[in-house]
Automatic annotation (TrEMBL):
Full protein name: Uncharacterized protein
Organism for this UniProt entry: Spumella elongata
């Protein structure tokens, strides 16, 4: 119908209120789809943090073998050693994500970090630092769960410093 007819009955016989109900249903379905997409990043992120923790432990073991009681390790440096970690590219002195990894996408990362009601622009570049920044607190929490005497993230850096107790002194030391 004409614009005035829109308020009463659509061409297909749908009332305006029915149109609104359909819009709500479509939006809910869209958000459900977005939640599934976001879930892919959430699962992937867990895998990345697991791998970072293993590398972190290896670094700490090397420090302990050198009779040291602490280690300072950069999460960003660890991320370069994780094969599945999103790959970055330098453009105009800024790092952007170039490749996401198996089964994940910028869209998955976006909805996981911004929420499913946020508006995603396909093709929009994602700052690599933003991906690292999102993972860092999860990584630090997992490091804290490892039982270190101290664990601190140096503000403004990717560095995490941990310490562990000295062995009990033996007679003759």
């Amino acid at each position: 119908g004409q614009a005035a007819g829109l308020w009463l009955v659509e061409e297909d016989g749908m009332l305006f209120a029915d149109e609104l109900t359909k819009i709500v249903a479509d939006k809910k379905a869209e958000q459900g789809d977005r939640e599934k997409v976001a879930g892919k990043w959430t699962a992937y992120e867990t895998k990345l943090v697991d791998q970072a923790i293993e590398l972190f432990k290896q670094r700490c073991m090397r420090q302990a073998e050198d009779k040291k009681l602490e280690a300072t390790i950069s999460f960003e440096v660890l991320s370069r050693e994780i094969e599945d970690f999103p790959k970055r590219t330098l453009t105009d002195s800024t790092y952007f994500v170039e490749e996401w990894g198996e089964g994940v996408s910028a869209e998955a990362w976006f909805y996981s970090t911004r929420g499913v009601t946020a508006s995603w622009s396909p093709g929009a570049p994602v700052l690599f630092a933003e991906v690292l920044q999102g993972l860092l607190p999860k990584f630090v929490e997992r490091v804290k769960d490892q039982g270190f005497s101290t664990c601190r993230h140096e503000a403004g850096t990717w560095k995490v410093t941990v310490s562990w107790p000295a062995p009990e002194a033996e007679d003759g030391d």
